[in-house]
Specification:
The protein is of the alpha+beta class. 55% of the residues lie in helices and 10% in strands. It has 4 helices and 5 strands; from the N terminus they run H-E-E-E-E-H-H-E-H. Strands 4-3-2-1-5 form a 5-stranded antiparallel sheet. InterPro entries: Claudin, Claudin5, Claudin_CS, PMP22/EMP/MP20/Claudin.
Length: 216
């Protein structure tokens, strides 16, 4: 019962992480304007994401524009698009696989096959966490490198946006949820694999008949 509850908890964390990845993918706040030196007081803030960039005026008005060309985008943006979309699809697959093999469902008869299916679902969640971590760390490295590069103009320096932090939180949920699902499934499989016990053969008595205690 405890392993089933932990398995449901891991599935819930995986779903939250999957939703967080989709949210981070759609948000345009992967990079935001850095207010330093001459840019301390500005009339607008620039947001840059995977699919569009937005300009937020000091009056509260916001204008967003979708990127015109895919091939003209930087390598990190193209990789971020591909990996986040792939993770979104894999997260859906992991959800269906885990639900099919979960202890709380009757889609498959309990046994080794059911445990292996759940472990596969947890492994897919872990794979999703690793894949989405690549563009997040790539973007963070570029932002930090350009921020401390004296050759980059101050107006082009950026800071890490909210989408990166949401993505890192989603990565933690995916990794932890996937590990929890795998561990619970492994422990459940060990509990169900009982050793085979053999009963002692019946021995006849001196008169050729079986002893009555053999039938007790």
């Amino acid at each position: 019962m405890t392993s089933a509850a932990l398995e449901i908890l891991g599935l819930g964390l995986g779903i939250l992480g999957w939703v967080g990845v989709i949210l981070a993918c759609g948000l345009p706040m992967w990079q935001v304007s850095a207010f330093i030196e001459a840019n301390i007081v500005v009339a607008q803030t620039i947001w840059e994401g995977l699919w569009m960039n937005c300009v937020v005026q000091s009056t509260g008005q916001m204008q967003c524009k979708v990127y015109d060309s895919i091939l003209a985008l930087p390598a990190e943006v193209q990789a971020g698009r591909a990996l986040t979309v792939l993770v979104a699809l894999l997260g859906l697959v992991a959800l269906m696989v885990t639900v099919v093999g979960a202890q709380c469902t009757n889609c498959i008869r309990p046994g080794k096959v059911k445990s292996r299916i759940v472990i596969a679902g947890g492994a897919i969640y872990i794979l999703c966490g690793v894949l989405v971590l690549i563009p997040l760390c790539w973007f963070a490295n570029i932002v930090i490198r350009d921020f401390y590069d004296p050759t980059v103009p101050t107006s082009k320096k950026r800071e890490m946006g909210a989408a990166l932090y949401i993505g890192w939180a989603a990565t933690a949920l995916l990794l932890f949820g996937g590990c929890l699902i795998c561990c619970c499934s492994c422990s459940q499989r060990d509990e169900t694999s009982f050793p085979v016990k053999y009963s002692a053969p019946r021995r006849p008595t001196s008169n050729g008949e079986y002893d009555k205690k053999n039938y007790v």
